C-alpha cells in the first residue's frame, strides 16, 4: 500500500516540531535541540517525488546548560559567527512500508556537505482546530561530527575521549499545508 498525502507545500510548525540530537559524553549521553529553524515539505501525487528543505539556526542550540551551549557555538564546535546555519536538502525519497520511508539528502554544516539518510515514519494527515491541514512525521539519522570538521575533544584515561563522534539526529515534526498560490 502506498501512503498518500495531499499534494502541496507544507511549512514546519515550530511550536509542534523538535529538531534534536544526542551524543555520548564520557559515560552518559547529552541531549539537546535547536530552538530556531525553518522548513518546507513539498509533497507530490507520487510521494516518492516529494522533497524537503530545512535550515537550522545553529546559535539556537539548547542543551539546557548555558555554558555548554556557548561553547558549542564557539569555533571549537559550530563556529556560528562564520557558519550560522545547518541545512538539509533532500535528494531522494523511497517508501519502505506503508508508513515508513527513507529520505536521503545533503546535510551542510560548517561549509561541509555530506549525504544523510533519514528513516522517516509518517504519523498521519488530518485537520486541526484552526481549519488547517497538518501532517506528522518522525525521523532519525546518524552522522559523524568529525566528517563536518567538528572534532574538538578532551582525551581521558586510556584511549577514551570525553565526547563521542556519533551524533544521533531525532526530528519529530508537524507541518501545515499552505494555501495554493
Automatic annotation (TrEMBL):
| SMART domains tied to this protein | YceI (SM00867)
Q: Which Gene3D superfamilies match?
A: Lipid/polyisoprenoid-binding, YceI-like
What SUPFAM superfamilies does UniProt report for this protein, alphabetically?
A: YceI-like
Lipid/polyisoprenoid-binding YceI-like domain: residues covered: 9-176
Source superkingdom:
Bacteria
UniProt similarity note: Belongs to the UPF0312 family.
Kindly provide the name given to this protein in its UniProt entry. YceI family protein
